Amino acid sequence: MRALVTGTSGFVGAAVARRLVAGGHDIRVLMRPTSDRRNIDGLKAEVVEGDLSQLETLKPAVAGCDAVFHVAADYRLWVPDGGASMYRANVDGTRDLIRAAMDSGVGRFVYTSSVAVLGAGHKGDVRDEASRPDESDMVSHYKRSKFLAEKEVDRLVAEEGAPVVIVNPSAPFGPRDIKPTPTGRIVIDAAKGRMPAYLDTGLNAVHVDDVADGHMLAFEKGDIGERYILGGENLPLRDLIKIVTDHAGRPGPWLRLPRAPLYPVAWVAEGIGRVTRRDPVVTVDALKMAAHHMFYSSDKAKQRLGYAPRTAREALTDAVDWYQENGYLK
Fold first, then answer.
1. How far apart are CA 182 and CA 289, in angstroms?
2. Do the beta carbons of residue 204 and residue 293 sit within 8 Å?
3. What gap in Å lies between CA 37 and CA 3, rounded to an integer?
4. Going by DSSP bridges, is the β-strand pair 202-207/233-236 parallel, antiparallel, or unpaired?
5. To which H or E segment does residue 227 belong?
6. Is the Cα torsion angle 258, 264, 265, 269 positive or negative in sign?
7. C-alpha to C-alpha distances, 12 to 104, 169, 181, nearest whole angstrom
8. Residues 183-213: pLDDT tens digits?
């Protein structure tokens, strides 16, 4: 099989590419000329230059491919420009790539969505694929853009017969998070002893290599138009940080922070970020998201695809070890 993989300069996309190569498949990767290519160093792959926002580059990218794994996304928890570029990449780019793939006769398309589109519940709530929140429930531009993108995928499947299977990864951790991602920064800060405090929130932690395996299972066994959560283990944020600090030999978190007093800090931080063009240390959207527990069930993927994720502890300790070995914890 020859497959196009997008997003291979990023964390999950590179893991999917490695999984395909390990399975004996030929891969082609779509990358911008300026993309960081460290995550595909040494990987047997054909590189084609292009951009999701440039329709004319997509048809050559999918030509001759049997499958597409569309992992690429603009993943930022804060954007200073109102999110226009994010919607162009995540919504319009997804639609354009699916149509280009259909025009080229691609038989199978795996779209990487996010558990973000399923919303978040109150403490004790666990969401699954049947969760259908409204657009108004999407807190950030990233969540809203992924929500709208998945709606567009559903429409293309129903109205145009697009051969798309949807996967919804939770929060991935593990080796080769070179950027790092926002969740990866939590691990780095905790491993450096910089997170003595925590918010009363929670998330679903999964090993990035399990997410990559889930993509392959969705390709092989998933039903067109269905969505499958690729998650791991639901953990309160305090427990997640403690796994990291214990493994790194640092003191664990001890101070629970209230959210309300942090909003003025976030407003100031965002104002500074707009001037400096650097990510704020805390954002209003992040505080709003922290009001909920982002817990999800992967039972459908386990039962229908044979998905078998490892523990959150393995994902987090693998991440710490990789960051240590690659100089991120100095």
1. 13
2. no
3. 18
4. antiparallel
5. strand 227-230
6. positive
7. 25, 9, 10
8. 999 999 999 998 888 788 899 999 999 999 9
Which pTM was predicted? 0.90
Within 8 A by CB and 6+ apart from 145, the residues are 74, 83, 86, 87, 89, 90, 91
What's at 98, amino acid-wise? Answer: I
What does CATH list as the number for 2-174+205-234+296-311? 3.40.50.720
Residue 241 token pair? 């940080």
Q: Which residues contact 185 (CB under 8 A, 6 or more apart)?
A: none
- Enumerate the domain spans of the chain: 2-174+205-234+296-311
Buried b (16+ CB within 10 A) or exposed e, 92-113: bbbbbbbbbbbebebebbbbbb
d(CA 178, CA 206): 17
